[in-house]
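Record pair follows.
FIRST:
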Amino acid sequence: MERGLAASTVESYRRDLRRYASVLAGRGKTRLGEITPADVEGFLASLREGDAEHAGLAVSSAARAVIAVRGLHAFTVTQGLAATDPAREVPPPSPPRRLPKAISVGEVERLLDAAGPGPDDLSADPRLLRDRALLEFLYGTGARISEATGLDLDELQLTTDPVVRLIGKGGKHRVVPMGGYAVRALEAYLVRARPGLATASGRASACPAVFLNARGGRLTRQGAWGVLHAAAIRAGLPEASPHTLRHSFATHMLDGGADIRVVQELLGHASVTTTQVYTLITVDRLREVYASSHPRALA
């Protein structure tokens, strides 16, 4: 409730803490005051190594479990349920930094064209107009797929100074401007395609979602991912992921000279350190351009 976590995240933490309690019971520890830092470290080691009932976890999954344990012990101390915090000095393991997979501007254009016709095509199938509008919106705003599928009509402003209000992780709101391509694709979809999709539901009250499925209900995250995946296959980009357009949005903004703090706000990152991973991509690109352009870059 306090952190606004998704139900799936809460369930993951619950599963981690159940496993923690089981490991502690195997060590003969049944009371909070009996737990030591060595017990927490032993739990982390058991996560990575696995046991008869569980396979060893990846670094990211083990880190999540340790974070759940640290949260438990910090809570018990603040609530006066325990005098010490045995997990405070046991940091979660750091996963290797993986660069987000961004695609080039040309590949983005191929992906968008493969999703559906442009807004000027008056004979376009309604669902293809929706698909094009969805992908234009994702690339034009840097929104997560879940933010796009959760978007309602009253959170869009397409007239003067087009903006959208997005609801991100933890229920945090942010306002993001939209470019002309996304606006035109959305207008074509909302005027020529969405009304027909809305009537398919047969319900007295229409669904408020911007993006509808063929039955007139809210397009699900899985449905949106299916739209992206199908367009990527047609465009010859089979490795595209749900975050492909979001990563590409951030990378292209930084390549174009945007300040990292601005990109942080647009993406809805709580910390700029999360956004800084994109600077690694642009530095790699600088190296490539330097190596191919400077007459004395290579020996």
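SECOND:
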Amino acid sequence: MGTTNNTIDGSDQVEQLARSLAAVGELIKKIRPDQWSATTPCPDWTVRRLVEHLIGMNRVFTALLADEPPPRRNADHTDDDPVGAYRDSAATLQAAFERPGVLERTYRGPLGAATGAERLQIRLYDLLAHGWDLALATGQPVELPDDVAERSLEFVRRQLTEDARPGRFGPARLVADDAPAIERLVAFLGRPVDW
């Protein structure tokens, strides 16, 4: 991993995470019962599978920051209450990133070593991109923090090499330079913004 942008301090980064988790939580709360099996911009993922991924990744990052083994892959993380499961996983993740020293420490994971601050940025771009997926799949307005999407785009442009794309991201898509930051972010990650 590279270095993070030092123009933003740790408390601001953690606050950005809180706002982003809350914005995605609002999208999840508004999913209608008939939308859980709807398709999303993520190939082969339904709305339910996408929410399971969001919950699962919150739990994976929480475990990583606590030096614990990650939760079992492909587990159904929605339980019987996907809204509550997301809320709980978001609160636990937020608390993990708020612990003193977490952002400065280096953590080893499947994709290499990264500081807590870098891990937070990785979680943010995944969270925002899937929030966009969820909004489109459920016909909701895309109300995600624009400033956080802009910072996430700056981060991912520095971090994501062409070698890292296969199997994780599609080729970057073209989008207008003046498009909202979230659209520029998802286009860079390979999403078709006209989905």
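COMMENT: The chain is about 50% helix and 5% strand.
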